[in-house]
Write a structure and sequence with these properties.
single chain, mainly alpha, globular
Length: about 100
């Protein structure tokens, strides 16, 4: 899947988060998605939707974002590629778990 067609939309979404934070008198940097991270998040959502319950996929990605932010706050200096590898390792664990009954 190509990334180029999605990138402008996600850039606009990042700017929207900045404006929403500013309306609350908080300054944040616009969140940006690196292609390697975007691909891994999409795969994580796919595995979740197919191995657990479809509606868990967005929440799984939200939790991944929280975990990545905590990893970054731990000052690991992780590059986007290392963060993608971190998410990849979690996805591999999920792929080996048995499917939950819905």
């Amino acid at each position: 899947m190509g990334w180029d067609w999605m990138n402008p939309w996600f850039d606009q979404l990042g700017d929207l988060f900045v404006r929403a934070a500013a309306a609350r008198k908080v300054g944040i940097d616009a969140p940006r998605l690196e292609p390697s991270l975007a691909e891994e998040l999409l795969e994580l959502a796919r595995v979740t939707a197919h191995s657990q319950e479809r509606r868990f996929a967005p929440l799984t990605c939200f939790m991944a974002g929280v975990a990545v932010e905590r990893l970054r706050r731990a000052d690991t200096g992780a590059t986007p590629e290392e963060v993608a590898a971190y998410l990849h390792s979690v996805r591999l664990e999920l792929e080996t778990e048995p499917r939950q009954a819905s």
